[in-house]
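This part of the workshop introduces the protein records we will be handling. Backbone structure tokens are a discrete shorthand for how the chain folds in space. Once this layout is familiar, the rest of the handout is easier to follow. The record below serves as our worked example for the rest of this section.
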Amino acid sequence: MPLEKLKIFGNPNIGVYIFTNNKVTLVPEGVEDSVKKVLRNVLETDVIEARVADSTLLGVFVAGNDKAILLPKIAREEELDRLRSAGLPVKAVQTTFTALGNVILTNNKFALLHPELSDKEADLIRSELGISSVRKGALAEIPTVGSLGVLNDFSGIFNPKLNTAELRYLESLFGVRIGTATVNFGVGFVKVGLVMNNNGAVVGELTTGPEIMRIMEILNFPGT
């Protein structure tokens, strides 16, 4: 499983721009072909340009798994139609929050949601994601749980502020191995600088060698 450094528009905060699952990776319009090539090779997905609410911040607005890609209520109809025409399982969800990537933490097994989402909203998200159940709650007293970590179906990497009990809790919820790391030279909001699926991962260009070693250790990637 490969791991590569990347920047988008000269910015190491790649996670705010990219959404991926195991089938497709969404990137902003105008991203360099060299970036698309890295993503295609490392994540082993199709790469499709998109916008949400006329914004390039796809990683902030989009959440989902292999069964559904969730866009917020502010997404424009033409943006939804463009993705649907590409054969993607896109759903626009009516929730209190619009930054779905920051309030939904999910893989193909489970989801942890921002604690202020209503039970009705939580059940809607559960249904759209095609998973059996969800829970609501904060991590390290931070409600934007989606910003604190990144998951695939085997591993998860989270902010070092999470305590041991929270890490074990996440392991029990998602059924994956969980560890802590930073990205981009000490940033604890891991999603900002890490994008991964079951096939590989990309990290922000400022991520240091020791940080990459730690990420590889958690993911069980081969390497030195």
